[in-house]
Write a structure and sequence with these properties.
single chain, 260 residues, Rossmann fold, 9 helices, 15% strand, binds 2-hydroxyethylsulfonic acid
Length: 260
């Protein structure tokens, strides 16, 4: 049922909303009757989302292009939001990516820069710009995308795992920093999710990407969106710190069950 819960009419910002978990999350908030602002780097992928968000039940929709790793662009876009959009109630720091699956001592440093700039610095830039308003208004919720990768490093994934370990530390620290305010902080930490994640990691190598999900039943972006909406819809005095979730076929970063 849309528009009936406590998210109805709330203003939600989802970064990296053009695909995968971000897109599914934007649609899930739309079904709750929220006012949904979405941003991503790829304008053409965002445009198609507008009618879908409206159809799903969004009370209002705002789309804008943003590369969260560009600090000046983040400040300009988020400080310049139209007045009816600048009171963000829920920020979903979803934008993120992995690049490469390689030994550190053989990797291309460009991969590290993209991951650290987006997953760590991008998250910080957006948070730094949005959270002061939440503190001032006495309400708000920051939901960060973590990963099981932040708990246990896997082979050839040192830097990606490091960015998610950083996300975990930043979420914990932000929660401490916000003590005494009404602003909540949640880290949603999934394992393997079937999205464009592996295709982006392998720079478009679909065959290699498909192998990642072969003979397992991965989580779907909608499963993560469910958890995000659940965390956001708890009563105001309840702070969900972390949600660690995997497919039934995954135990941790490295233990999988592959069907024969
Ligand atoms: C995504 C989880 O294990 O595919 O963050 O890297 S994993």
């Amino acid at each position: 049922m849309s528009g009936m819960g406590n998210l109805s009419g709330k203003t939600v910002l989802v970064t990296g909303a053009s695909s995968g978990i971000g897109r599914a999350t934007a649609l899930a908030f739309a079904r709750e009757g929220a006012r949904v602002a979405v941003c991503a780097r790829r304008e053409e992928r965002l445009t198609g989302l507008e009618p879908e968000l409206k159809k799903a039940g969004a009370a209002a929709v705002l789309l804008f292009t943003l590369d969260v790793s560009n600090r000046a662009a983040v400040e300009k876009a988020l400080n310049g939001l139209p007045s009816e959009w600048n009171t963000i109630d829920v920020l979903v720091n979803n934008a993120g990516l992995s690049r490469g699956l390689t030994k550190v001592y053989e990797d291309d440093p460009q991969n590290w820069e993209e991951m650290i700039d987006t997953n760590v610095k991008g998250l910080l830039y957006v948070t730094r710009t949005v959270v002061p308003g939440m503190v001032e208004r006495g309400r708000g919720h920051v939901i960060n995308m973590g990963s099981t990768a932040g708990y246990m490093t896997y082979a050839n994934g040192a830097v990606y795992c490091a960015t998610k370990a950083a996300e975990k530390a930043i979420s914990e620290g932000l929660k401490i920093d916000l003590m005494g305010t009404a602003v909540r902080v949640t880290s949603i930490d999934p394992g393997m999710v079937e999205s464009e994640f592996s295709e982006v990691r392998f720079r478009g190598d679909k065959e290699r990407a498909e192998k990642v999900y072969q003979n397992i039943t991965p989580l779907q972006p909608e499963d993560i969106a469910d958890a995000i909406v659940w965390a956001a819809s708890r009563p105001a005095h309840v702070n969900i710190h972390t949600v660690v979730m995997t497919t039934i076929d995954q135990a941790n970063s490295v233990v999988f069950h592959r069907h024969s």
